[in-house]
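> forwarded from #structure-qc
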């Protein structure tokens, strides 16, 4: 089996419901092969309407010092901004124009890594997002991003 087989093939494009395991009741982008390999990253909407994105830190996410690789955290934040901004996207596709992060504390194997945030401003084709990533409730990354809506399909 190639690296791409079995990843992103389970029934098409878009969000699919998770029915088993720790994230049962959440959703995952089954069709995004990169995010499946990096995470996978799960998402839900809290009762108050807050989007929440999460994954469990595994040994494969760690750097040589035994802490989560900064690139993994930034990949997670990049994925999270689109979940946070979904209502402002109006069904459009988007690309990340800017993503900046401040690393606050290390993440260790086994911790639950969660992101929340808000759309700070949206208008026209540009959406500004701010958020925080927590590991077992402890802040580990603060991020700001700019998304640009784009037309067309992949």
């Amino acid at each position: 089996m190639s690296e791409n087989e079995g990843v992103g093939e389970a029934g098409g494009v878009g969000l699919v419901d998770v029915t088993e395991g720790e994230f049962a009741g959440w959703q995952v982008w089954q069709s995004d092969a990169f995010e499946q390999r990096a995470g996978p990253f799960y998402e839900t909407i809290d009762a108050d309407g807050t989007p929440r994105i999460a994954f469990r830190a595994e040994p494969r996410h760690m750097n040589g010092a035994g802490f989560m690789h900064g690139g993994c955290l930034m990949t997670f934040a990049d994925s999270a901004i689109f979940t946070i901004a979904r209502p402002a996207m109006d069904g459009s596709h988007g690309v990340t124009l800017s993503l900046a992060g401040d690393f606050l504390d290390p993440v260790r194997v086994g911790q639950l890594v969660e992101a929340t945030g808000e759309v700070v401003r949206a208008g026209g084709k540009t959406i500004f997002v701010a958020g925080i990533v927590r590991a077992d409730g402890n802040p580990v990354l603060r991020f700001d991003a700019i998304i640009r809506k784009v037309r067309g399909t992949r």
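QC bot note: Residues 1-11 have pLDDT under 50 and may be disordered. The beta strands are 15-17, 27-29, 42-45, 51-56, 93-103, 112-123, 126-135, 138-150.
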